[in-house]
Amino acid sequence: ADRSVSTGDLDTAVVMTFFYSHCNTVCPFLISSMRKVQTTAIEAGYGDQVTFLPVTFDPKRDDAARLREYAEMMNVDLGADNWYFPRPDDHDHAKEVVGDTFGVMFEKTGSTDSSMYMYNHLGLLLLANADGYVERAYTGNDPAGDRVWSDLETVLQA
Question: How far apart are CA 136 and CA 148, in angstroms?
Answer without folding.
Answer: 9
